[in-house]
Specification:
Elements lengths: L9 E4 L2 E4 L4 H17 L28 E3 L2 E9 L5 E9 L1 H14 L9 H19 L8 H18 L6 H14 L14
Antiparallel strand pairs: 1-2, 3-4, 4-5
């Protein structure tokens, strides 16, 4: 890239890369050159993952076969964006991908939180907070609201845990009241309560 296309910006992480081109013609030229170089060293571009994407937004109003792509757990596509002055427009930006969200959801399901009734609230917080904080810090940098359904799901499991652990909270009404008191009194006890205290 430095030798053949010094003006073309790109990002690479391990074997994934995104190359920023100014036109479709340039994109085809660069893709062909990369494929040729890969063959010279005994490698090849992935036939399904390699694609030319049109970054459609409020200014680029054309059409193309591909207008979204995934990179490092994010999906990049047209989204509503609010400017510094409060104006809303259509930009092209990232948010957590469906694939990444599904993986996190499977992890949450695998915890079987409601079955760990021998653990205390403090034990649960020590277990969950480092993991959930990591997800929030990485995937919550852009469009954090895309994480809210996952975080609410964790809360649902915590409520089930609470109802199983404490006999006095077996009814939903009592459990809900106790939940509201706890999240108001200790809003940072679980990392994700900063964003989503409700379930």
């Amino acid at each position: 890239m430095a030798r053949r296309f010094p003006s073309v910006a790109f990002e690479r992480y391990v074997d994934d890369a995104v190359v920023h081109c100014r036109s479709e013609a340039q994109a085809h030229l660069v893709a062909g050159a990369i494929a040729e170089r890969m063959e010279q060293v005994g490698l090849q571009l992935h036939p399904d993952k390699t694609r030319i994407v049109y970054c459609k937004d409020g200014r680029r109003v054309g059409s193309a076969e591909h207008t979204t792509f995934d990179f490092l757990g994010y999906t990049f596509r047209a989204r509503a964006v609010r400017s510094r002055h409060g104006n809303v427009f259509t930009g092209f930006g990232p948010a957590v991908s469906k694939t990444a969200r599904s993986k996190m959801s499977r992890v949450v399901w695998s915890w079987r939180l409601h079955r760990h009734t021998t653990l205390s609230e403090r034990d649960l917080a020590r277990w969950l907070n480092p993991i959930v904080s990591g997800w929030m810090n990485y995937y919550g940098r852009f469009y954090r609201s895309e994480l809210y359904p996952l975080l609410r799901r964790i809360n649902v499991y915590l409520v089930r845990w609470m109802r199983k652990k404490y006999k006095r909270l077996r009814t939903f009404t009592k459990a809900h009241a106790a939940w509201r008191r706890t999240t108001r009194q200790y809003p940072r006890y679980f990392a994700h309560w900063r964003w989503v205290p409700e379930f």
